[in-house]
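Sequence only, no structure available. Ideas?
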Amino acid sequence: MGNEEGSRDADQTRLIAAANRSSSPRGRVSSIVLVVCVLQALGIVTAPRVRARTSRCLAAKLMAMGTRESNDLGCVAGVVAASAPGTATACRARVDARFNRASTRTGDCGGTVGACDAAADACVAAIQQVLPDPGPSACEAAKLRAAGHQAQRALRCYASAAARGVPVDATCLARAESKLLRAVAKAAKRIDCSGQGAEVAAQVDAACVAAVVDAAAGVVTAVCAGHTLSTTTTTLPSSAAAPSVSLSGCATSGYAAPVTIGSQTFDLVADSGSTTLAVASTACRTADCAVLSPLYSPGATATRVGTTTSATYGDGSHWFGRIFTDLVSPAGIPATVRMAFSTIDAEQGFFVPAACSFVPVPDTSQGILGLGSASLAAAGTDSYLDDLPAGSPLGEAVAVRLCGSGGRLWLGGYDPASAGASPAYTPMVSGSPYYAVVLADLRVGGNSLGFGAAAFGPTLVDTGTTALVLPDPVFSALASAVAAVPAFADNFGGAAWFGGSSCDVPDQGLTKAQLDAALPPLTLVFSASGGPFTVDLPATDSYLLQQDDTGGTAYYCSGIERAGSSRTPTIIGANALHTLLTIFDRRNARVGFAPGEGCAPSSALARSVEQTPSPRSRPKPQYRRHP
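Reply:
I predicted one. Tokens follow.
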């Protein structure tokens, strides 16, 4: 793995050192010559030429970013090859530290170190979406390295153009992609693994190259500029008239919205962590599909595209289907669009019986409605929100209030009656394909766990994930901090409880209110243009997940999960959103949080009469994890 980290560091060091010395008037001529010589040695340019300082700076940063992305993906490849989860963290930290030290010496030509950090993280996360195999897999590792090499080659093409102040050479970019396709095909000959060459190449181009380079007519104008945090403050509509739909389900089952496709209406899980709409079809023959109703049958408004697609999610579930276009609208909302979506003709682990009351209910949803942007869509499919007519306010924002049971989803704004105070907003990480934000700190009872934004990485806010997914060291620190509180130890035991497979009645019989009073709150600290702000979550809606049985007995399960891999992002899942109104402000590229209003307390929900006393412990239901 050391070779992956440092094989091209000499390129970066020589070029950046030359660019730095160019700031001295006495050494300007010699440093220009040195930059040119280095670029010639690397095959970047073919003739010496005097360049402006800004051009040299842009070229240096592009070279450095190419080296960084290649080495970052090399670190991940090393983990996948050896199946050694977690070891990429230290490897990438060394790569990132070298880049950050070197980057400060390139001069000021836009793109802060923090912005480039976010760009590199987004690149790695995007490639891992199309190459998700955790290993051990020499094939997958080879494809990851090939993706890194393509990113570096393409950014070298742009560096060459930036150094000369000319448009990028399309032939140079084509050669870079061609080498990737050959490398992917070669890797697949040994043993098949995930990720097709064209799919990987497209992701590299979008997330690792185009997202890093700002260019006008092919001429580089900035590096990492697209990854500065947004500070726009355009007012988001808040009106009781904002169209909305009722949601059914819970954190473990997913929250489903009624959606009309053609002449049929389905319950589809509303998922902010994906984009594609997919619905079970009459062609699906799996046992799970057999109990679903209705199943999609193409009607008069449907058109088959003639291609297929598939998707895999963070919990390992996946599906395969055919692409159709049809008229789609959330039921009751006058926002019908014709869009490309997928049928689900085969699946594994996707349709898991919901167990919101520990009783498996197999027909709670017939598919998924992704609420993300087109950059996340499965090949050949569309984004419902992006397909809304230009100028329509409905695609500019999505707001959700997720209750312990059920909830509500708004398009284009939110109902102020559902917010207990004005929302506080944190910018989305620009360039990330997800609704990702900067989580700056995590506190238990007001005390920091000692992890900063770098430990969390771009943090996803995802309605389709059940729990709060944390990097392994953060998970362990949080579990230990909570377990040290006597009230927790007396009712649930030690830190190991959080990694267990059961949901338990508190040993002392404490109610939800009593638990929240006795246990420390969890505080999320978010970055914002006006300074950090905090969101306080009660124990039973953060690191504990309440699950009631049909008789009303309240059980508590772990509300946190280990990421289990350095490739898995930090995710704020549905359970941690229970006390909040959450606003995905797409127009202003920010996510808002306000105290939620309107959820019925658990005690108000109708219960059936239990024929036998409830046990003290029940098996934990299966959790969802998207992406």
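The chain has 15 helices and 28 strands.
Hope that gets you unstuck.
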